[in-house]
Design a protein that fits this description.
Blueprint (H helix, E strand, L loop, with lengths): L1 H13 L5 H14 L10 H13 L1 H10 L7 H8 L10 H11 L24
């Protein structure tokens, strides 16, 4: 299976139309398939993707991870990233301050921010 994934990755890298995320994703998969399972380091874009996927369905994420088709971080690793911020109901002042500090380095047209609240599932973690 690893040889097949390597062939897919190489074919994907040859295409000019490939999106930046897909390029990163396939390069990371190729790198991870050539490494031992211990001490893996994941690209931040891969972590974001996995957090998003696991938020939609933990069981689907675990099924995909355990299938061995893709090398993905464990649920424990994702929890470590997810718990960087303490969550609580309402607007958090420390999160707003971090957004403000990060926006200072952006150009004026990049500072446009929309906070949209639609259907959401809130999971509270104690810190």
């Amino acid at each position: 299976m690893s040889d097949d994934m390597t062939a897919i990755v190489k074919a994907a890298q040859d295409e000019d139309k490939i999106d930046n995320f897909y390029s990163i994703f396939w390069k990371e998969q190729q790198k991870l398939n050539s490494m031992k399972r211990n001490g893996e380091r994941y690209h931040p874009e891969l972590i974001k993707f996995c957090l998003s996927l696991a938020a939609k369905s933990k069981s689907a994420y675990e099924e995909l991870r355990q299938s061995g088709i893709l090398r993905l971080p464990s649920s424990r690793t994702l929890n470590d990233y997810r718990n960087v911020y303490c969550t609580a109901p309402g607007i958090q002042d420390n999160v707003l301050e971090e957004l403000k500090s990060k926006s200072l380095s952006l150009a004026s047209h990049e500072r446009f921010l929309v906070i949209s609240i639609d259907e959401m599932k809130v999971t509270l973690h104690t810190c």
